[in-house]
């Protein structure tokens, strides 16, 4: 084909940096948003916090002329203080006009950075690497700390450090003593008995039961460290040492015959064993705790459910009127241009926060409208809800709803829930209605809690009980819901009365 030049006319939506900022702030969690706001306050002299008790003008300076007087800003959003400085209105004449509504609705394929903490600050001197990469104390570091306090020879300390390195996160020794012996230099002349002796010393470290080679040894270590006058301690040691497989199979009749115990006595022995920790290493957290700050608060007032933003989670911002007054309209010097750009960025940032809160309020209000039954009666009254339902109600794309509900939390009288918790698939009922999967899980949990401990309900029995309530669920679906709730199969739920 012969190359040629073709002139075409068309329209295309351009994602400006300001619009990208608004969309990115929309999908930030509260903790990430707080960090983003702090960075903006440190980098932009035009921004300042709105302190409590200060006079605050509710008029919107972002609108021009008659637009500001015609419609007050929505409640529970960030407000920019109306400056009394005369030339601030003149700045609005030449500065880029900010629209009353930002088009933050986006499609699935639009991807933006979601975490403010994942990017280092521009100031390398103030960027704290350890603050962003440090984690909690690991099990190995906890054991090595105890090893440093224990009096040992250099050889024993080397053996102990090697043993600790072979302990997994659950607290069990993964390698056999023979394999550990082969890993040492033959010139050290280390014998298997030495490794066995050092292992016994490591097994006395905290947490109790650490360094065991199997479940039986782990439980026995914990029982041995209980006071000698602990009731049923010796019987529990015998059960764990000789008949742990019968306990795992719930063969209580065989256990009563072997141990020569009555049913009530065996029950107390089993209860003592159940108080032990089969995974002692899990007591040491290896990651930083995650804190949840609710974005939305839901409460009932005079019979109505009210939705409001958590104003204490994020500081209120405004343009500093004194700094804004330094901007001169006709001055094109470098300093004045810098201040003019900072002022415009501050106004865009505040508007982006307003847009974020307005969108969050719209989505949260629709969720509360759909899930009033949950707020009134609990999980069993949860209605089926998908992203499309909320997207259609607020007039936005499903991907926008997904971004708004991710890492956003709602404080309700029933607890704090992520907004995504209120979305669930549905199952048809015999009467032609629908029941949400969350409600079915709640019913299964209730049935299991009320079952006979000697004859627990099987998945097939639970499916038949649900069918009696008009909910048609297959046995494999019941098994899937049961596993998601962390409920063991019926064969493992069998208990002594």
TrEMBL record:
Q: Which domain of life is it from?
A: Bacteria
What is one process in the GO biological process aspect for this record?
Answer: DNA-templated transcription initiation
Could you tell me which InterPro entries the record lists for this protein? RNA_pol_sigma_54, RNA_pol_sigma_54_core-bd, RNA_pol_sigma_54_DNA-bd, RpoN_core-bd_sf
Keyword DNA-binding listed: yes
Keyword set, alphabetical order: DNA-binding, DNA-directed RNA polymerase, Nucleotidyltransferase, Sigma factor, Transcription, Transcription regulation, Transferase
Q: What does this protein do?
A: Sigma factors are initiation factors that promote the attachment of RNA polymerase to specific initiation sites and are then released.
Q: Under what name is this protein listed?
A: RNA polymerase sigma-54 factor
Starting at the broadest rank, the lineage of the source organism is:
Bacteria, Pseudomonadati, Pseudomonadota, Gammaproteobacteria, Pseudomonadales
